Amino acid sequence: MNGAAEQVRRTGKIASHFQPSIGPYDSADEDVIRLQMVLIKRSGFDGLLVDWYGPKRVLDYGEIDDRVVKIMKGAEREGLQFAVVYEDQSAKHARENGAQESLGQLAHDASRTIADRWLSNKLWIKLGGRPIVLVFGPQAFGEAEFVQFRQG
User: Fold this and answer.
1) Neighbours of 141 (CB within 10 A)
2) What mean pLDDT is predicted for residues 117-135?
3) Kindly report the CA angle at 137 between 3 and 50, in degrees rounded to 5?
4) What's the pTM value of the predicted model, to 2 decimals?
5) Cβ 87 vs Cβ 121: under 8 Å
6) pLDDT greater than 70 at residue 146
7) Are 107 and 152 in contact (CB under 8 A)?
8) Residues 113 and 78 sit within 8 Å (Cβ to Cβ)
9) What's the mean pLDDT in 44-73?
10) How far apart are the first and last CA of the chain?
11) Is the model's pLDDT at 136 over the cut of 60?
12) Distance between CA 27 and CA 77 in Å, rounded?
């Protein structure tokens, strides 16, 4: 975090008081994802919830989105159930950093992306037979934005 990748590779120092047992790693590394999914499964968990900032490519949200897609594929390979926890504050931050869409449109786009990418997957976590979509908030959304999110 906040360091050049080459410097981390050279020194092994990361922005943490604790060192990961596998050493510094890139969360987009397929081998790391495979290891993490196997560890989740062998630890007795049936699935995972992944924090997601939406599809907008502002700040580091595009990189996070790319990694979430890889994590979901890794979960699927291991037969783990999955769902996302959408950070509604990311829409506000996207607007503050160049996104031209309204909060409602960003909410709709995030919901539509979830539906298009994942909701039809048999491993998506369901409650009462219905797929769940979690939102960490409300932090930025009001009722109007949640209506647009639900309509996505």
Assistant:
1) 22
2) 95
3) 55
4) 0.87
5) no
6) yes
7) yes
8) no
9) 95
10) 33
11) yes
12) 17
